[in-house]
């Protein structure tokens, strides 16, 4: 009797599962084809499913009665011709007109006073499946598609995020959950990455219970591929490289690590947050750029910041996946909340629609010609500055940078590069200090063309001002970095940084 009861219970669960699949199929069929296909599916399928109980029928009827609202809330895919970055950028007036057209077309703007039909197309929703308005979903898809085309991923899927940190975090979350689905018994999840990878990976690992395994870099600041291979274990769930890494503007050997990804059947994330919207154009204007994007079969995802060389507003980035099979693991869903059905692709919840629109406008207003010209101008300035800096004894360029970013260091103890930074700031420049080794970071933008001669002249003066002045290393910011460098336990330094930030954001009573 007990065996029979268990068998019946299993059968009931199977029937309910079939019924659930049938309901899901009904919804998908309707959303793709309309009510005619839905009615046909009901007549030929659902009514013949034994597990299609009263509750399932109620859910199905609710779906049907709310079909118009549901369809309005689904992501609206842009037409193919609207998904490509235009050759020539739009004017401000053209951008405004196109944005207005998109909003009207998707029912998010009233075309004329009294247009009640347009107002009805944007109903308030109790289903938090899609953020905001249909037009913002359209614009997000367009931004993703244009970004994917730059990175040679015409079939790639993705999402916009609030910045590079969230793009990185969502990539690690998706790959972790994908690994859980592929290997249900796995308990330890390791991510292999160069020591030069962005700290956002450390933050994501801390939050998502992942273990970061760092690999050293060579003298050219590229990750050591042989050491990378040795770091891969049975617990590895994701490989990571940078294109380029922020510290020195150097692109990791992505092609070699891509081969490792294929060999070990592991996904590979390329952090192109810094260079994703610059490297493709640097390559187009004739500079050598190592292949780093979806042209490499082993690359499974790429992050790229629109608010850097995409020239959008702060707080905009894209995360691209080669396959929806991984992208879906970025989604969090909750069907038991009393407030309605809930599903989000981001950690931070709803996307700011104004930033989505601004990012779309930044891309279409530049166009291919605009990006090409910006890259040309910025690279000309970069080459000019690098050559000029190398002529200043004892400064040199760190590693082999590939785009509009590089780092400089000193080859002599007579000239402290950190003291040079202090002197440059006294002259009105904002300097970015780095460590391990001590160096200064430069990010070149198109407007730096106007100040490049003054920058070189001041840099020469700063070097001469600190040459042989060893006491300057014990003053200003140089002293802080010098002190930190002598502390062997980096955890102590991290604790100091935490306390510093805690104090900074404390309001005195």
Write a structural description.
The chain is of the alpha/beta class and 509 residues long. 47% of the residues lie in helices and 12% in strands. It has helices spanning 2-33, 35-44, 54-65, 67-73, 92-105, 116-120, 134-150, 164-182, 200-208, 225-231, 254-264, 279-284, 324-327, 353-390, 417-426, 452-466, 476-485, 490-504, and strands at 157-161, 190-194, 211-215, 236-242, 268-271, 299-305, 317-321, 332-334, 342-344, 395-397, 405-410, 432-434, 439-443. A 7-stranded mixed beta sheet has the order 1-7-6-5-4-2-3, with helices on both faces. Strands 10-11-13-12 form a 4-stranded antiparallel beta sheet. Strand 8 (332-334) and strand 9 (342-344) form a beta hairpin. Helix 1 (2-33) packs parallel to helix 3 (54-65) and helix 8 packs across helix 9. The protein is globular.
Kindly report the spatial arrangement of strands forming the biggest sheet.
1-7-6-5-4-2-3
Low-confidence segments: 4-12, 14-19, 26-48, 71-81, 116-130
Beta fraction: 5-15%
* Average pLDDT over all residues: 82
Count of runs of 4 or more consecutive helical residues = 18
Distance between the termini: 73 Å
Evaluate the radius of gyration: 27 Å
Helical content band: 40-55%
Report the sheet with the most strands, covering strand number, pairing sense and barrel closure.
7 strands, mixed
How many E strands?
A: 13
Anisotropy-based shape: globular
Structural class: alpha/beta
């Amino acid at each position: 009797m007990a065996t029979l009861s268990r068998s019946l219970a299993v059968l009931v669960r199977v029937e309910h599962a079939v019924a659930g699949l049938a309901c899901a199929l009904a919804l998908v069929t309707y959303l793709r084809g309309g009510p005619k296909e839905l009615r046909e599916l009901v007549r030929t399928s659902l009514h013949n499913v034994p597990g299609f109980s009263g509750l399932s029928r109620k859910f199905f009827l609710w779906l049907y009665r709310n079909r118009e609202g549901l369809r309005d809330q689904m992501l609206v895919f842009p037409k193919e011709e609207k998904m490509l970055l235009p050759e020539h950028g739009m004017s401000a007036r053209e951008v405004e007109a196109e944005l207005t057209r998109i909003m009207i077309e998707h029912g998010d703007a009233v075309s004329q006073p009294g247009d009640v039909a347009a107002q009805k197309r944007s109903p308030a929703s109790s289903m938090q499946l899609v953020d905001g308005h249909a037009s913002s979903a359209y614009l997000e898809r367009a931004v993703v598609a244009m970004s994917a085309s730059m990175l040679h991923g015409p079939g790639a899927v993705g999402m916009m995020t609030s910045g590079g940190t969230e793009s990185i975090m969502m990539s690690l979350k998706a790959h972790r959950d994908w690994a859980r689905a592929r290997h249900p018994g796995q308990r330890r999840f390791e991510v292999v990455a160069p020591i030069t990878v962005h700290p956002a990976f450390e933050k994501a690992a801390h939050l998502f219970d992942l273990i970061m395994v760092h690999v050293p870099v060579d003298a050219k600041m590229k990750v050591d591929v042989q050491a990378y291979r040795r770091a891969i274990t049975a617990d590895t769930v994701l490989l990571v490289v940078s294109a380029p890494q922020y510290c020195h503007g150097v692109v990791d050997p992505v092609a070699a690590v891509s081969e490792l990804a294929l060999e070990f059947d592991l996904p590979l994330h390329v952090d192109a947050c810094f260079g994703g919207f610059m490297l493709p154009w640097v390559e187009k204007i004739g500079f050598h750029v190592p292949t780093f994007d979806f042209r490499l079969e082993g690359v499974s995802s790429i992050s790229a910041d629109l608010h850097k060389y995409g020239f959008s507003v702060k707080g905009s980035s894209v995360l691209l996946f080669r396959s929806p099979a991984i992208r879906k693991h970025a989604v969090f869903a909750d069907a038991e909340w009393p407030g309605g059905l809930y599903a989000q692709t981001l950690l931070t919840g709803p996307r700011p629609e104004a930033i989505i629109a601004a990012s779309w406008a930044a891309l279409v207003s530049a166009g291919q010609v605009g990006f090409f010209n910006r890259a040309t101008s910025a690279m000309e300035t970069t080459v000019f500055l690098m050559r000029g800096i190398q002529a200043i004894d004892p400064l040199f360029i760190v590693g082999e940078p590939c785009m509009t970013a590089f780092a400089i260091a000193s080859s002599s103890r007579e000239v402290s590069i950190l003291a040079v930074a202090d002197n440059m700031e006294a002259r009105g420049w904002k300097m970015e200090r780095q460590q391990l080794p001590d160096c200064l970071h430069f990010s070149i933008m198109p407007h730096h063309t106007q100040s490049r001669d003054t920058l070189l002249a001041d840099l020469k003066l700063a070097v001469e001002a600190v040459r042989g002045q060893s006491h300057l290393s014990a003053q200003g910011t140089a002293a802080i970095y010098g002190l930190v460098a002598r502390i062997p336990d980096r955890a102590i330094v991290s604790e100091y940084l935490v306390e510093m930030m805690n104090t900074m954001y404390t309001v005195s009573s």
